[in-house]
Amino acid sequence: MNQTREIKNFIFSQYFADGVRISLGVLLPALLFAQAGHLDTGIILSLGAIGTSIPDNPGAVIYKRNAMLYTVLFMGLMSLVTGLINQSPFLLGLEVLLMSFFFSMFNVFGNRAASIGTSALLIMIVNIDRDFRIGELMAYTGYLMAGGIWYMGLSLAVSQFRPYRIAQNTLGECIVNVAQYLSMKADFYDLKADLDATYNKLIDQQIIVHQHQDNVREILFRNNLLTRDQTNTGRLLVLVFVDVIDLFERMSISHYDYKHIREQFADSPALAEFHNILSNIADQLTDLGDDINVNERPRIKYNFQQQLEKLKTSIDATENNYLLKKILINVRVIVNRINTIYSYFNHKELASINISNEKDLGRFVSNQQMDPKVFIRNMSLKSTTFRHALRVSIVCLAAYLISKLLPLGHHSYWILLTVTVLLKPGFSLTKQRNYQRMIGTLVGGIAGAVIVYYINDEAIRFAFLIIFMLGAYSFQRKNYIVSVLFLTPYILISFSFMGLSDLSLAKERILDTFLGSLIAFISSYFLFPSWESYQMNSFMRKQLIANYQYLAMLAERLRGLGKDEVEYKLKRKEVYVSTANMSSAYQRMLSEPRSKQKNVREASKFLVLNHKLYSYAAILIATVDNGGYTDVNPIHFKLLRKALFRLWEAIELLKTTGDDDFREPDLRMPTHAVNDLDQDADDKLIREQLDFVNNTAADILATARRFTNETAQDDTLSTATT
Fold first, then answer.
1. Which of 254, 158, 174, 256 is nearest to 209 (CA)?
2. What pLDDT was estimated at residue 96?
3. Are 546 and 571 in contact (CB under 8 A)?
4. What is the DSSP string of 485-511?
5. How far apart are CA 669 and CA 632, in angstroms?
6. How far apart are CA 137 and CA 127, in angstroms?
7. Which residues in 433-589 belong to E strands, given as ranges?
8. Dist CA 119 CA 394 (whole Å)
9. In sequence order, what are the residues at sequence separation of 6 or more whose Cβ sits closer than 8 angstroms to the Cβ of residue 416?
10. Torsion, CA 368, CA 372, CA 377, CA 379, rounded to 10
């Protein structure tokens, strides 16, 4: 049943839709022109379509359109330049050196801009060994750009024809990942599950959830059709996503001492029932995401009210159950939020709900502008992107020289192409891609060679070509190793239709890929390496600043300055983004050589403490917002200021050269603070949470001190050794 659902979801997913679109855009020109007897022209058009498809990632239509336009222009430029200097190995080497550096610097503008650079380098590389007359070069460039324009038109037409499908696919996938996050949290109540392993998986899943949330934000909030749409579909998608974000926050802030809970309530059936209901909620969310993905009406299949009543009975029968009651309240809130989301699919309910205006929604999406000032500002060895661009340019030149000096076959540009694709700014990602590329190429090369050698029927080979093409383009964003596994036989079968069908081509493909992978891997270690440990200060400081500003919102509320819901959600988003970035950096560091890993224990502890701090802060803000307080206990405010000051000290400790100064906001005591305020249960709860915040802030400061001291000692030792 689950396999059937997964297959159905994949067929309706954006990944498969991308695969079909790209395959159609690439294959159709070649087929049509082949029928007219001009296969060579069709292949050039298809090459232009392939290059233009690279930056065609999910996102706002305006960004995709602009990226594809830039790609067509840069492809045309690289085709002309490379064709004009093809007779001069010296000029070609100079072009490889300069253009590899220039286009690798596009990483400073984000992933989509980096894809534009990859497309331009692809055209430069495949044209290095071609000889052109001026007329032929102009015609070739024209066909190449025409192929790019054809694909761009196809992609934009699909976006207009199915304006909601991309948003539905991306939102559905986001909800499924939130469901997986909740399923992992349910394991905290499973006495058989390992706490440390579960927490590590939870952090990894957080990164995935944040990435998908950013994708949905860009698609929903940068799409005028959706934000201005007054029909049910546009409103539904925006409202569901906003509530899913709130739901994820509720899941994130429900952080407890699970080791203590297990020890204290091991004999109570409540723990098993918590695990059961949270697992069912996760399953219900998975169904919701799947239904949105396949465009079906969602239906609730669990009676959560009955499960909540059973859980309450078990908790009432447990001694010292105050903590369990707090968890139960949180679960009730989650269930109510899910019921609210499902109510949106009732058109009458949906019509009566207002959503934020377009201006507010747009503030949640980062701008993607190719500002030349950003490019110039990163022209320094202090910039990770600059060092990466230097590494790419030097290694690409070396790969070009190797391909010219060694007798490696007629497609030695594959070495240069492999190096360009595999070299990433960080060592860990380069290592991962190398492994995936080599395994995928080896297995795919063997499969492709077998098909080409043993299957002579062109119709059957063409069917395999379609399958491998769809697989390569469908999995290129979902699973890189599977994409490469499909890509290699797709390329070999394509060459077989051009008369190149002997086994030597498969051997050449595998050999060139392995050689390019080896060059990329060695260079990432020795040539301007970028180790995560040297950048950890920056990630830690940004995470602290985001948490500081989020906690400072509580001070704003206590001072009676009102609550701006949009500003609150923006600050919350910054916490999510900074936490995901810090977690990603930490995970990348763990995959680097052990000799390059610095302060692993302190970085791990820092990550956990900041997660706790955010959880406590979110609970406090929710408590104050829901309590409707008009009087402020000065003790509460003093504790809050003390915690914020400790965070500020840690922020200053982690400051490095080039970091902007961080200024504390004005945190004077509220004029309406009341001394000798009678403490009720809510006041005591706030005091307890503020104590947690204070203790956590003190632990963060201590961890930051140890981290900076150890870093300074490592730097001193490194200098002395040098």
1. 174
2. 93
3. yes
4. HHHHHHHHHHHHTTT--SHHHHHHHHH
5. 10
6. 10
7. none
8. 19
9. 96, 125, 128, 396, 399, 400, 403, 516
10. 110
The pLDDT of residue 677 is 47
Closest by alpha carbon to 411, among 506, 339, 539? 506
Q: Which residues of the chain have pLDDT under 70?
A: 1-2, 222-232, 255, 347-369, 407-412, 499-503, 558-564, 626-633, 657-659, 665-683, 685, 710-722
CB 637 within 8 A of CB 671: no
Angle between helices 270-293 and 322-343 (to 10 degrees): 20
The answer to whether the beta carbons of residues 326 and 221 sit under 8 Å apart is: no
pLDDT of residue 721: 39
Q: What type of residue sits at position 67?
A: A
Under a CB-based contact definition with an 8 Å cutoff, are residues 669 and 634 in contact? yes
658 touches 382 (CB < 8 A)? yes
Contact 388, 593 (CB under 8 A): no
What pLDDT does residue 57 have? 85
Please give the Cα distance from 18 to 474 (Å, whole number). 6
- The residue whose two tokens read 């010292």 is 320
List b or e across 342-365, with b for residues whose CB sees 16 or more CB atoms inside 10 angstroms.
bebbeeeebeeeeebeeebbeebb
Cα–Cα distance, 175 to 242 (Å, whole number): 11
Closest CA to 568 of 543, 551, 581: 551
Question: How far apart (Å, rounded) are the C-alpha atoms in residues 558 and 629?
Answer: 8
Q: How open is the CA angle 172-178-184, to the nearest 5 degrees?
A: 140
Question: What are the tokens at 504?
Answer: 């030597």
What's the CA dihedral at 628, 633, 637, 640 to 10 degrees? Answer: -80
User: Token pair of 564, please?
Assistant: 């701006």
Torsion sign across C-alpha atoms 98, 103, 104, 107: positive
Q: How far apart are CA 433 and CA 422, in angstroms?
A: 6
User: Is residue 701 within 8 Å of 649, Cβ to Cβ?
Assistant: yes
Compute CA 553 distance to the chain's CA centroid, rounded to the nearest angstrom: 27
Question: Is there a contact between 241 and 569 (Cβ–Cβ < 8 Å)?
Answer: no
Region of 528 on the Ramachandran plot (φ > 0 left; ψ -120 to 50 alpha; else beta): left
Give the pLDDT confidence score for residue 118 in this predicted structure: 92
What six digits make up the tokens of 634? 């000065």
Residue 518, CB-side half-sphere exposure with 13 Å CA sphere: 7
Residue type for 682, please?
D
Amino acid (1-letter code) at residue 236: L
User: What pLDDT score does 351 carry?
Assistant: 60
| β partners of residue 673 | 632
Whole-model pTM: value is: 0.83
